[in-house]
Amino acid sequence: MDQEFLLRFLEIGAIDLKGDDTKLDKLRSTAKDLSAALRKAPSKTARFTMVAADPNVAATDPTVDETMASLRKQWETVANAFAGRPVGILRAILLDAIVQAARSDDAIAVAFVNTARNALAHAETSDEAEIWREAVSEIETKVDARAEAEWATPEMVAVDPLKYTPPAAVSTDYEAPTVDRSELKAKIHSAAGPWGPTNPNPHQSNNPQPWSQEFANKMSVTIAEALDGMAEELAPAPVDLSGPLSSLAKAVTAHVDKALASFSGATAGLQRRTNLLWWKEALYSPSAHASYLDLPPFEASALMALDLHEQVPTYSPASVSAFLREAVRCLPAEKDDQGNGERDVASLVRDARTTAFMQPFRALAAQYAPAPVGRGPLLSLIGHPQDSGVVDATTLRALGGVDASTKMTPSDWGTYLFRELQTARATSDSSIKRAKKK
């Protein structure tokens, strides 16, 4: 049976309902409602996850407001039951709702895992660490299982047999031709002497030379006419093979196409891995048309996140993030005054919003993420810069969920942005598919 994460929060004392099962039922109903709402709008996954993972999220955040409104539908007097807005309870409801939705929707699962990995690295959730570890592990295992199917290279490629049904045999009534023996006999009799009814031989047998010559002439004509008549009856009727041959050609073409598609699908994982190894060794950015080695390390790491995102599918194993981290570590480290190669998030966001080399990243971020309203991904801040590239510390904490002074290495920065890109694409693609179905 699937684990209920609301109960896990109760077990560790993170929320206290005074042993009232009626209140627990209200929380469960709220989580169920929010899960249904999330499946209809997967793009909310990142915001839901970031709020659920942050014990210090503002009580006025739009996602907190949405969750509170949903709870109020089940528990009208909830405002009177607590001294202030019960953010802890709302966060527990959100996590339970997200996991419920992720269990049935792979796109939400991808978004949850990537967002949670980023958010938990910068959130103070020590008391809840085990709960989050269990939730992320369960959904990440699900995502990896699907990703393995898309990345795997089978030992053998199976191709179904050629499907072709030959046309049914054409049955015709056939009667073998025969010679009219009476007629043939009469003609031979006429050829032998003057007594025949038609075309008799005028020579008597006592005049052998003319008789034999005339007999030969008449007999050859008689036999030839009989054989010609039989030959005409034996002539085959014309057969049109264009239809059967056309059907056979179509069947063979479809079979070859299917075989090639099976081979292509089976080797896609191998080809993808080969391309990634080439990319890592070349250290060349197709988006910037420049070597990563010629760019500042933090800009290079952001573009590496973008370029890797463009090369891999939405459903990729967790090891891809580790692959990116190692690829970024191939870059020469940019040393600051302390020599530790780290920079604060505030300056990283500022440069991402202003530097020329980051334009491809900003363009994609603007497509994926809406303008920032409440807690959300850094893509919203990067893709929708205002007049100034500077984001003050309070705004960065409220909208991005990270402290402005948080330090990151190039590999940390690239991995963080890659996960946000994967999250955004998963939920964007899912929303587009749902819109088309409607």
Can you offer a commentary on this structure?
It contains 18 helices and 4 strands. The chain is mainly alpha-helical and 438 residues long. It has 3 domains: 5-151, no CATH class; 181-232; 283-437, no CATH class. Strand 1 (284-285) and strand 2 form a beta hairpin. Helix 2 packs across helix 6 (87-104), helix 7 (106-120) packs antiparallel against helix 18 and helix 9 packs antiparallel against helix 10.
- What is the molecular shape? elongated
- Which structural class best describes the helix and strand composition? mainly alpha
Number of strands: 4
Give helix % range. Answer: 55-70%
State the domain count.
3
Mean of all residue-level pLDDT scores: 83
Report the biggest beta sheet as strand number plus sense, adding barrel if it closes: 2 strands, antiparallel
Strand content: under 5%
- Radius of gyration (CA) equals 42 Å
Report low-confidence residues grouped into runs of 5 or more: 334-339
Number of helices: 18
